Sequence to fold (978 residues):
Amino acid sequence: MNLELFIPELSLAAFAIVVILLDLFTRRKGLLVAVSLAGLVVSAGFTIAMWGGGSQAIFNNMLAVDNFALFFKLLFLGIAALVILASVDYVSKFARFRGEYYALVLLSTLGMMLMAATAELIAIYIALELTSISLYILAGFLKDPKSTEASLKYLLLGAVASAVLLYGMALVFGFTGETQLGEIARTIQAMPPQALLASPALILGIVLLVAGFGFKIAAVPFHMWVPDVYEGAPTPITAYLSVGSKAAGFAIILRVFYSAFGLPEWLSLDWGLIFAVLSAIGMTLGNVVAISQTNIKRMLGYSSIAQAGYLMVGLATVGLSPAADILGRSGLLFFLASYALTNLGAFIAIIAISGKLNSDLIDHYSGMGKRAPLLALALTLCLISLIGLPPAAGFMAKFYIFSGAVHHGLLWLVIIAVINSVISAYYYLRVVKVMWLGQPASAEKVPSSPALRVALSISCLGVLLLGVIPGYIMKLAEVAARMFIF
Amino acid sequence: MGFNYLTTIIFLPVAGAIIIAFLPNLGHRCIKRLAAVFTFIPLALSVFLFCNFDKSLGAAGVIQFGEKVSWIPAINAFYHVGVDGLSLPLVILMTFLGFLVVLLSWKIDLRLREYFAWLLLLETSILGVFCSLDLLLFFLFWEIEIIPMYFLISIWGTGRKEYSAIKYVVYTLFGSAMMLAGILSLYFTTGSLSMVDLAQSGLGSFTAVIPTVAIFFLLFIGFAIKLPVFPLHTWLPDAHTDAPTAVSVVLAGGLLKMGGYGMIRLCVTIFPQVAHSYAPILVALAVVSVLYGAAVTMRQTDLKRLIAYSSISHMGYVLLGIFALSQVSLTGAALQMFSHGFITGLLFAMAGLVMHNVDERDLRKLGGLARQMPIIAVIFSIGGLAALGLPTTSGFAAEFLVFVGSFSSTTVSGIQIYTILAVLGIVITAGYILWMLQCIFYGSPLEKYDGVKDADILERAYMFIFVAVIMLVGIYPAILTDIIKLGILPVV
Fold:
């Protein structure tokens, strides 16, 4: 039993508990932020220390500690740190439950870290629920009607998705008699092809898994919850949902589908095509509907549906490429990292601006270029990155993920995707236009707190760095993509 | 490897942009001077490169002043810049324009800081396109240009500026989307992003992931939108008309050339067979562009719109020269790009000056200004005559080469007829240019324009530079054609 391999998770759980307990005894709520951040840093330290080591499995092959999992753990810890920094002002307005807020963020991060590592169906389900339940609560934290509606909608639809997912898992288990991904793969490969085709159970199970996970990553047609939840939830939580929960969803999909259903080839071609079609529909619908949005959080909600579509180009590539080819997986990892930085940056800027305006309407952003030049510049950079223009990260990410797709015969999907980026430019630039061309409603400056400034600088620097010299992160993504043990 | 000339030329403007954008407490004069300095040094350096460029025939197809550094090992991308005979004239063109537009913008006073920052960033991106020898780098610079253009048109423009700006962006993005698909297909066909390797090996020994014809046209659409080629030209009149003067100059002078440059550098060089077999269609398209562009220009009454439409017709000659696929015609096309950059740049500058001093852009309401602004009248007339291809101006040399080259070309049967049709375009050009000059400057002077200003000393200075280059190349075209030939020889 290699408990030391579980230390990042254990330490994070310990810090979450400390935050809750500390909340009882201290009046200085700033301490809670410090402790939460310390927890993330400590956990990240342990994670980095394990990087590059051989892949191992713990708890009877339930959890994999490979570079793939470590890459995602670092990503989630980074995301959580930025979210916490972005929350400081927002949370200070709450009268109660500040400690719980930070603790819940840490717990859902813990859930995501587990999601990246699990290699067994039941553990997957538990990790997923740990993440989701924390997020259900966080979405309703404002307790106004919209936030409550968001929370309830998320909970109900999330519960349905979990049920679908469980049903899919049950079918896969029933078909193979195994819950461990590696074992499932071995059983499937040992069966004669006729046996696989004779019973619809496996295919049905896979389809249900796609549906269940599709909910997490906001893939069309499982995206209904996104706009309402994004609009109603506290903005830092919206940011968290849009990057953390989505990245975790992609991590788990990659592991399950690549490890368990990667062979035989016709099977992986099948789910590859499912993802390709979902991707095409997702980005088109997300982008087209985003055009008519007037609320910036809703707009970014639809935009995140579209971005999930681009990300699924990577999944489709993984399905269509031979198992040894890493381009699809590393492209997906790089895109996730770049998308996380970009979207977080955009949301942090929105938190700062909307916090002053008390409004999320795009029209109210008018003249922001004069009232808050740096915030507006940062938001512009992030929106440019979302379009996929240089010198921002989004450009490299798209180039990288699409290059894999073209390599494996998905040129049609890439053409749909690039045309979609053109459509998306229209609504992203509308925000830019309003900010720089509109007349300010008042001459009053829009201030931002130090915590927000730090968080925003980190994400914007990251966006630029990944856009101009992406070599290092691409290398990490390649190493991570190569190290799968199950 | 001594001093990194090209890197300095490319990135000095953007360094200036960053300084201007972020250094606090800069006065207006200071910003303008900074911008002038940060564009003048690249100009001086590019002239220095021109003088030190190896012009011997042995240098044909050789990349000079190259710099190559590993950039993204994961996808085999390099930071690789260099110039050959094809790109050097365009680099010089752009550094000239970059400096001249700063002088042209001396009277701007709206949001000065942002204006010059975007203008300098624009120069970097265009220079980058001409110098890049790596497909990803090329595409990166190609895309960067969109954002400054969007801001420059939509903030400092006139008329329906926001509409024109977003139209420009959507058109360009659509083109570059196609181009990206083409570049990716190319990348996976050969496994290399190096434009030098691709140019040398071609696609001969590789099996393309999709038919080469498809790759060719994916790239071609991207370039054709930029050039622009009929029927993908509709963004151009709007963008030109509504852009501020300096941006119109860069747009017509520098940006359009990216399309022609890309066609020669990628389409023709890498896919000679495809270019060969589709040349008849493309040449026909070129003639349509020439004649249609000229005909539409004839009936414009807005000064800037008229010059904008004339670009479509003049870029038609570039397309004709490229796809006539003979050495002379390609040289002519490259020279036409250089020459048109200066001529149309001058025309837009003069039009901007007239509009600024008189505050009127409707040709029907202008008249008799030759008396009130004699210097502008003379220079504008020289620019107009150069545009219609009068001998001793660069316009004549370039168009003459295109016509000779395409008339004698053997690649397309019946190209003689196309050439003759295209020559007719010159006649129409003469018609609208002379009509425009007549409308603005001749006839009896109007009383309401008494006392309008003529060009001041700064304006005379940049006029002189424009005219000097146009005449120099017109009288002694070999100064450029000797260099261009070195770039064209390996293509044909």
